[in-house]
Amino acid sequence: MNILIIGGAGYIGSHVTAEFLGSGHNCAVFDNLSSGLRENLFPQAGFIHGDIHDYSGLLNAMKSGSFNALVHLAASKAAGESMLNPEKYSRNNIIGTLNILNAACEAGIKNIVFSSSAAVYGEPQYLPIDEKHPAMPENYYGFTKLEIEKFLFWYEKIKNIRYAALRYFNAAGYDVKGRIKGLEQNPANLIPVIMETACGIRKEMQIFGNDYDTPDGTCIRDYVHAGDLASAHTFALDYIMKNDRSITVNLASEKGYSVTEVLETARKVTGRNISANITGRRSGDPAKLYASSALARELLGWKAKYSDIETLIKTSWAAYQGLTINSK
Ligand code: UFG
């Protein structure tokens, strides 16, 4: 199949592109390289340097390759920033997605795989979180992802598209085959922050609170490997096309690790001290977050393979030892 991967030069997008290429599909990446990186582009995939805000450029790209499907990963994704600068999230996530949906309809691309997020759920009312859990986002980023899911729902009804909305939990880790060379710039997420500290890019890191109601007092999260997320995209596209049906599923490892457990594993794997200070809580952090991925297992036959804590850290460490930061 021919697949257009919008945001394919980014962290998850590059893993998704590697996976589709590895499954024998023809891929073209569409990316404005604002956070995506040139070294994440694969010579086997076409590259269109474009912006989702340029409707005619987007439409031309969609008409250029007899695409059977598109994957939409182009978004701003920092929950904290979204509360300070909601305009950016309205523009990039909401307006950008509406451009993509409208252009896809005009270009006749009916199948869409969308990167949604666990952020649509907000503060957990019960654990593990399944897809029936109420969706009440606690930050504007999560709100934008939920709104996009609603647009997809209506475009399915009215324009007959089919979609898979994939609600990622805490994405982490790097390609087990070492194909992804570009590292995220200025990361704020736990594992890349730990890696930057292990490499000496940061002198020390902060643990945001150790007085939560968890066994060691630090927050528990469900980390899912980027390679596992990527394989779910291929399964999901296959599913919606074969079954002519849209789906919304969680992608999670179904295991929870605390900040301390992640840090201790990183110290063991890297052999580095990784200096960490305990500071106050970060606002909006729930104590525990982990999910059920039973629906993805049942519908897609998908299961996380690389999302154990050792593999998450080992693959991250391998990528950070390559140290290809800052080259666009
Ligand atoms: N943390 C630290 N120090 C840091 C960074 C993080 O202690 O320097 C802690 C956080 O307080 C939290 C845990 O590590 O307890 C994980 O934090 P992340 O920032 O890595 O991830 P979040 O759980 O806040 O959010 C991530 C994505 C969201 C997504 C969510 C899904 O950033 O977009 O996972 O579960 F919605």
Count the strands? 13
Quick one: CATH class of the largest domain? Alpha Beta
Low-confidence stretches: 324-328
Total domains? 2
Q: Please state the second-level CATH architecture of the largest domain.
A: 3-Layer(aba) Sandwich
The CATH topology of the largest domain corresponds to Rossmann fold
Give the helix level as a range of percent.
25-40%
> Residue-averaged pLDDT, rounded?
96
Q: What would the principal axes of the Cα set say about the shape?
A: globular
Distance between the termini: 29 Å
- The share of residues in extended strands comes to 15-25%
One letter per element, helices H and strands E, the order comes to: EHEEHEHHEHEEHEEEHEEHEHH
Query: Using only CA atoms, what is the Rg?
Result: 19 Å
Question: What does this protein look like?
Answer:
- With 328 residues, the chain is an alpha/beta fold.
- It folds into 2 domains: 2-173 and 223-251, Rossmann fold (3-Layer(aba) Sandwich), CATH 3.40.50.720; 190-221 and 254-322, UDP-galactose 4-epimerase, domain 1, CATH 3.90.25.10.
- Helix content is 40%, strand content 17%.
- The protein has helices at residues 11-22, 55-63, 79-84, 86-107, 140-159, 190-199, 226-243, 259-270, 294-300, 309-322, and strands at 2-6, 26-31, 46-49, 69-72, 111-117, 162-168, 170-172, 205-208, 220-221, 223-225, 247-251, 257-258, 276-279.
- It has a 7-stranded parallel β-sheet, with helices on both faces. Strands 7-10 form a two-stranded parallel ribbon.
- β1 (2-6), α1 (11-22) and β2 form a beta-alpha-beta unit.
- α2 (55-63) runs parallel beside α4, α4 (86-107) packs parallel to α5 (140-159) and α8 crosses α10 (309-322).
- The radius of gyration is 19 Å and the shape is globular.
- The model is unreliable at 324-328 (pLDDT under 50).
